[in-house]
Write a structure and sequence with these properties.
435 residues; alpha/beta; 5 domains; five-stranded mixed sheet; two-stranded antiparallel ribbon; 7 strands; elongated; binds zinc ion
Amino acid sequence: MKRGSKGQASIDMFLKKKQKSGEDEKGADTSQPDAETAESYSIVSTTLLTQPMTTDAARGYVKESTGGRKFQEKWSKEFTWVQYDPEKDAMTCSVCSWALANNRVRPGVKNILDGQEKKWIEGFNSWRKGMYAIQKHNESSHHNECLSAKLNEDGSQDMINTICRKSVKSKEENRRGLKAIFDAVLYLARQGQSLRGHTEEESNFKQLLKFCSKYNQEIKGWINRPSKFKWIVPEIQNEILNQSCHEILRNLVKKIHKSKWYSVIADETADISRKEQLSICLHHVDDSLLVHEDFIGFYSVETTTALNIFNTIQQALLSLNIDIQMCRGQSYDGAANMRGHISGVQKRFTEINPLATYVYCAGHQINLVVQECFSQNHHAVTALEVLSCVVNFIKGSPKRFSDFSKINDDATKAKSHAAACTAAYRVTAVTSQLG
Ligand SMILES: [Zn+2]
């Protein structure tokens, strides 16, 4: 920044006066400034308040105005392209400056001086945003264009090697950090544990990473790194879960494609939030004649009409790139919307693919058979009703449940060899204890 010529003249005049005053201070009475000196004071004061300063003393004043922040040497050690210019009191990018000076940037990015990154050519001194701005520029497309040009240029091999080493090291660190995060997310998902907690700090995910960091310095370094790019926010966790889910489905689909033929098993029920969910499983046999029954997901359905459920199954198969014509079987419960021979799901399916034979689900059938058998046996019905009443009675009070647990422990110790008979014993014991 340049000082105005009037301001420069005024400061020079002031300094000259001051020097003269110092030389004459022994002989002359300087307690009262003369008119010229007073005018110089006035001009200098005005100048200091209105004109920017560039001397070393003035630079101290500028630092004070930016909150006392200044350039930090560790920035240039971590990012070798960062150069500090003491004259400008600003940092620049040596790679981008070199590329611009040597006309080594592509025509599309040649107008760097009009773009957001021009500050790295002219000088950047917003020290408050120092590290953040450096990281942002390091990842910018323009900087990487210039870096590629630099790498292709002969000479300055040491600098290129340094940049490459830094880049490779940084990539390796990022990969290891991301792998630890993937492992933590997959571990919690595998164990059916929630990732989040009441606060992000108290979440299972964050606490698991902290636990691992006790025994692994790399993970510790990663979660304590100053950068805000740690990939541990909930959005990233969801992204990892989604990608993992897609990967699992891709592997399943590969196996089904290899098996060629498959059958569909579907059933719908309401979840805890009272939304209807359709569960779909695919059944196939591999080369070793082993039977596989793979769950491919829950699909939300607004209504349980046959048309809606059939469309959902068809859409699910389509999204997985599984040919509906390769289906050789379908199995549902006995509800009219699924089993109906006029407009049920199985009928709509066979209209498209007649080879998809419908089979009444054996699991549902055995359930109905057991239910019917018990309903015909009065002793069994009475025993189950009494047992149901006792269970409700005990669960209705924490004190009763505590007493029951104590009796249960004693009974288990005493009757460990007769586990099948303990149910009747417990009923007798608890009824006699409770009167
Ligand atoms: Zn750059």
